[in-house]
Design goal:
Helix content is 41%, strand content 16%. It is an alpha/beta fold.
Length: 368
C-alpha cells in the first residue's frame, strides 16, 4: 500500500489509507500483474481525443497487460475538473496516470501531489510541468515548420513568386497549451521574412466557434481579398476559418493549414477547401505511452521505454518518446493515411467527393 513521503492534501491522504485492496497482493504489496492505469484527456472539442487516442490507448494497455484496467476521464477543458479527476483516480488506487493536461502549468501542483502519493504521471502529447515520470509526444516545433513550409509553397503556386509580400493570418492555438507556442514558433521560423503577418489570434479551447469569430474579425479588418494564406494551428481551427471565409463571400479560398488529420479535414482537403494537415501517427503515440505506463506500473524505469529526453520549464532530462509528424496534402492522402491504416477510401470518398478523389488518385490502387 502506498504511503506519502511528504504533506499531501487531507482528502488525498485519507483516501490513500483506504485504497482498494484489489490493488494489493495478500502481503500488502502492489499487484504488478493487474493494476489500474488512469487516463486523463483534456477535452472533447478536438475529435482525436475521443475518436483515436482513448480507444487506441485502452486497447494497447489491454494488449500489454490483460489483467490491467483503464480508468478514463475527460476534463471538458476544465482545469478544476481535471484536478478532481486526478485526485479521484489516485484515491481509488491507480498505479500510474497518463495525463494530457488541460493546462500544463495549472496542473503542476496536482502532479506533485500524485508524486508524493507514489503515483507516477506520464505526460501525453503535451509536456506538463511538475515532476512527471516520462513524456510521449511529438516535436511541436517540427509541426509548425511543416505548416509554415506548406503554406509558403501553396501561396507561391497560387499567386506566383515575386508579386510582393503576402499577407498571412495566424490562427494560433490555445495559449494554455505549451504545444500552441511551439507550433507558432515553428511556423514563424519558416514564415519570418517571407510574408507579412497581417493579423494573429489565439484560439481559446482550440474551438471552431472561436476560430470563426477571430477569422471574421480578420476579414472585416483586412478585406476578403487581402488574405493570401491562413496558418491555422489545427483542423478544428481550420474548420472555423473556412466557414468564416465562406460566410464573407470568399469564393477562391486562400490556402489554409491544419493539424491532426481529422476525417472532416481530410475531406476538406480532397474538396480543395483546406490545403493541408499535419498527421501525427496516433497509433504509434498511443502504443508508446501505453508501453511506458504499463512498464512503470510494473515498477520498471521509464528510461527503459524512452528514446530520448526532454526539458520542461520545471524539470530537465525527462525520459521521452518523440515521434515524427508528417505533412499531408491531397497527393499524400493515399500513401500516408489510407495505406497507413488510419482511414479507408470509403470513409474519405463520400459520394459527393468521388470525382475529387478520382482526380487526386485516392480511389486507385489498394487501400479501399
Amino acid at each position: 500500500m502506498r504511503t506519502g513521503r511528504g504533506p499531501v492534501v487531507a482528502v488525498l491522504a485519507a483516501a490513500l489509507l483506504t485504497a482498494p485492496l484489489a490493488s494489493c497482493g495478500s502481503d500488502g504489496a502492489p499487484d504488478r500483474e493487474g493494476f489500474t492505469v488512469g487516463l486523463l484527456l483534456p477535452s472533447r472539442a478536438v475529435p482525436r481525443w475521443e475518436h483515436a487516442d482513448r480507444p487506441l490507448i485502452e486497447a494497447q494497455v489491454k494488449k500489454l497487460c490483460p489483467a490491467c484496467r483503464v480508468e478514463y476521464a475527460n476534463a471538458e477543458n476544465d482545469v478544476t475538473r481535471q484536478r478532481q479527476q486526478m485526485i479521484s483516480m489516485v484515491t481509488k488506487g491507480a498505479e500510474v496516470l497518463i495525463l494530457d493536461a488541460a493546462d500544463t502549468r495549472a496542473l503542476r501542483s496536482s502532479i506533485q501531489e500524485a508524486r508524493r502519493a507514489g503515483v507516477p504521471v506520464i505526460a501525453y502529447d503535451r509536456l506538463a510541468e511538475g515532476p512527471i515520470t516520462g513524456y510521449v509526444g511529438f516535436d511541436g516545433l517540427q509541426v509548425g515548420r511543416l505548416q509554415g513550409e506548406a503554406l509558403l509553397r501553396a501561396m507561391d503556386r497560387r499567386t506566383g513568386s515575386g508579386d510582393g509580400e503576402a499577407d498571412v493570418v495566424m490562427m494560433n492555438g490555445d495559449p494554455t497549451s505549451p504545444n500552441a507556442d511551439s507550433y507558432r514558433k515553428g511556423a514563424l521560423s519558416e514564415l519570418g521574412g517571407e510574408v507579412r503577418i497581417a493579423r494573429a489570434y489565439n484560439t481559446l479551447d482550440w474551438s471552431t466557434q472561436n476560430a470563426h469569430t477571430n477569422m471574421s474579425a480578420a476579414v472585416a479588418a483586412l478585406g476578403p481579398d487581402r488574405i493570401d494564406g491562413v496558418l491555422a494551428a489545427n483542423d478544428n481551427i481550420a474548420a472555423g476559418v473556412i466557414a468564416a471565409l465562406k460566410s464573407a463571400g470568399v469564393t477562391k479560398l486562400p490556402p489554409v493549414t491544419g493539424q491532426d488529420a481529422d476525417l472532416d479535414a481530410v475531406r476538406r482537403i480532397v474538396a480543395g477547401e483546406q490545403y493541408m494537415t499535419v498527421y501525427k501517427p496516433f497509433v504509434k503515440e498511443a502504443a508508446a505511452v501505453a508501453g511506458m505506463a504499463v512498464a512503470v506500473g510494473r515498477g520498471e524505469d521509464a528510461r527503459d521505454s524512452a528514446t530520448t529526453t526532454v526539458d520542461s520549464p520545471t524539470h530537465s532530462r525527462i525520459p521521452a518518446v518523440l515521434l515524427q509528424p508528417s505533412a499531408v496534402t491531397a497527393r499524400d492522402i493515399r500513401r500516408t493515411l489510407i495505406d497507413g491504416g488510419l482511414y479507408t477510401t470509403g470513409q474519405i470518398c463520400t459520394p459527393e467527393l468521388r470525382a475529387a478523389c478520382d482526380r487526386a488518385g485516392i480511389t486507385s490502387g489498394p487501400g479501399g
